[in-house]
Amino acid sequence: RQADRSRELQQKADQASGSECAKLSMKVARQSLEDADRPFRRGNTQAAQHAIDVSLHYAQRAVDCTVQSRKRVKAVEIELRGFIRRMNDVARTLDTKDRQHLKQVLAELDKERNRLLQALFGPAAANSRKKPR
Questions:
Q1: Which H, E and C letters describe the chain, residue by residue?
Q2: Which of 24, 102, 123, 129 could form a disulfide with 13 if both were Cys (CB 3.0 to 4.6 A apart)?
Q3: What is the CA radius of gyration of the chain?
Q4: pLDDT digit string (tens) for 109-121?
């Protein structure tokens, strides 16, 4: 079952460390985002927002593990950028009231991306980059 596979993957990500933690955590984040899309389309906002929160948690965990290990920083930054793009795509399909939660999550994800950019290029990097459209 999908839910069992999701829980199993979350457990693996929770137990992993270093670059493996980052890789598995981003996988869980992407999967949770896709899991949120279905309940949103069915009108089950509460379940969808829970999946979005799980997605945010694991994206943050991926960044934490990446910054700590200093491995795969650029790869995770690229992955996170694509993840943010996908979340924006999902947000565009939602009603205004449902979209608000995703806007807050996207703001948090942008902060996480700034952390990765700082890890790559130093403190000035996050402040000098252009805002995505």
A1: CHHHHHHHHHHHHHHCCHHHHHHHHHHHHHHHHHHHHHHHHHCCHHHHHHHHHHHHHHHHHHHHHHHHHCCCHHHHHHHHHHHHHHHHHHHHCCCHHHHHHHHHHHHHHHHHHHHHHHHHHCHHHHHHCCCCC
A2: 24
A3: 15
A4: 999 999 999 988 8
pLDDT digits (tens, 9 = 90+) for 71-95: 989 999 999 999 999 999 999 988 8
Confirm whether pTM is higher than 0.90: no
Distance CA 22, CA 132 (A): 23
Mean pLDDT of all residues in 91-101? 88
